[in-house]
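anyone else get weird line breaks when pasting these?? whatever heres mine. first is seq + tokens for prot A
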Amino acid sequence: MSVYKCKYFKIQELVCNHVMQSYSEEQIWSFLDEDLKKTLDIIREILGVPLTINQPKMKVYQRGLRCHLCNLVQSNKTPYITTHIQGKAVDILLPADCGMTAESARHKIQESADKLPCNIRFEHLQKGVPISWIHVDVRDNEKDEKVYWFNV
């Protein structure tokens, strides 16, 4: 059985540099949830613009799969088991000139939810403030909604 690989993303765009330096590309593709990988390709097609997750050239590595060595994980004092650590989440940035905000892009994706291979979750607010990126994950949601919005 072959491992699904994204059509629109290179593996280094989806995982932290620690993982990239420690495993083969084939192994790493298997660390990411298959539904997430398929969802990312479909979101790219729905939005019709290039999407940015990690930016290795700018040394930005923690928007996809994170490991225990990543700063965002190490800074926690309590157990930290997130969808990013499980290979089920990414944070997407849109091109500045695409004419969409993260909010409008989330709505556009929701309007085409029937194309998605599974239920997804969008993070919407952090401490009451709308976030400027698209956090999407494929974790089960308690309401079994195709697109579930949550706040942190």
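and prot B, same format (seq, then tokens)
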Amino acid sequence: MGRAHPYLNKEELLMAKLKVEDGAIAYTGNWTVQHTANASLHSRHDSDGTPAANASASWSGYIRGIDIYATKGNSFGLADVLVDDVPHGEIDFYSATAQHGALVYSITGLTEGYHTLSIRKKGIKNAASTACYVDIDYLLPDFVHPRTDHIRNIVCIGDSITFGANVASRPDSLYGRRLQQMLSIPVSIHGLSGAPIHTITQILDAVVAPRMPDLILWLAGMNNTNPRTDLERGFDKIRELMPDANIIGSTIQYNSYYTSEQNMVKVNEVKTACLNKGVPCADLYAATAGNTYINTPEGTVHPNGDGQGLIANLFYNEIIKLLRNG
């Protein structure tokens, strides 16, 4: 007998424009992360200012358009924009006075489906500029449904981060709810505040299995000193209860509540558990390294609403890889 899955109704399938933060974009070449209040999530990627085509960035997703936001200034240069490796246009980041969070390029009218955006530093500038910097603050894609039956029902599990402690607008700003908007796929959210991994594993049969998910997202490790063994057992339990379900894991985000050494143990053990069990892993810690804004105003271990958006971005990237790889 086939499994019945809830689909979003027509009204809920309306397309959504949601931010993709700079930490969820892929970079090659010379880039530096700038932590500044002038950028979304207080984070921006800057190239160097040299006259060299030595920096590029890319992001892929199911979209029908996308906007690029950045800082403009008097030391900024030019970049090429490509869609699916085809030249689309050029960005001039120069401005006589600084402009932060500026819309620098807009793409509309794409065929609804999978597209890759690329931004490539040209290493040249207009005559008024003093250098060739380019930068990326965030993207604003116009998301569309992936048009696939491989993933029709998603469940998010985890601790108080998944629950949304430190999120002012809950549940709307939770990463699970944002993923539902990005994908137009039903997402249920189950976060147990203070719960270590083995506690979450114990409720899989009662809370997760009855929903018959195609995909389970597990952000893990904050409440475990050494999460590897328990997380591997949790993955095994999921496969025992739901053998057809896919799993994607995630590390914790950067925080100053634990020491760097404690955080790296948590992060590396989650990565190892995912590697050992063949589970894709979103590296939330690497994407937020050094970002003290993400946990404000609480200032401990819980991302705020903006941080939840980045979590959604990173899980989305892994989900798209899963879909593209069949």
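btw re prot B: The chain has eight helices and 17 strands. Residues 1-7 have pLDDT under 50 and may be disordered.
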